[in-house]
Amino acid sequence: VVVTQGEHRATGEKAVVEGALLVLTGHPMLVSPSHKMVGERMVFRVGERTVECDACTITVADRP
User: Fold this and answer.
1) What's the predicted TM-score (pTM) here?
2) CA–CA distance from 5 to each of 31, 55, 58, 63 (Å)?
3) Tally of CA atoms within 13 A in the half-sphere of 54 that contains its CB
4) Edge-to-edge strand list for the sheet holding 57-60
């Protein structure tokens, strides 16, 4: 599964829509120009710029 919003790209093995929530599982990863987030489960609130992540590791890009 691939979900994109602007420069943000989330991938995983399975996506389920639960009302206003998009739940991504199966090694989900979210990549943006400034960071990469990897976890066990990610929950996106449709129409908002928020994400909840279980057991996440976040890597922040170096800024010049």
Assistant:
1) 0.86
2) 11, 23, 19, 22
3) 9
4) 2-5, 8-11, 29-31, 35-38, 57-60
Whole-angstrom distance, CA of residue 50 vs CA of residue 62: 22
Residues 6 or more apart whose Cβ sits within 8 Å of residue 50: 44
| 10 burial via Cβ count (<10 Å: 0-12, 13-18, 19+) | buried
With tokens 């922040």, the residue in question is 60
- Amino acid letter, 17: V
Measured CA to CA, the distance from residue 48 to residue 27 in angstroms comes to 22
Q: What residues have CB less than 8 Å from 40, skipping those under 6 apart?
A: 25, 28, 54, 55
pLDDT along the chain (64 residues), means of 10: 92 95 97 95 90 95 74
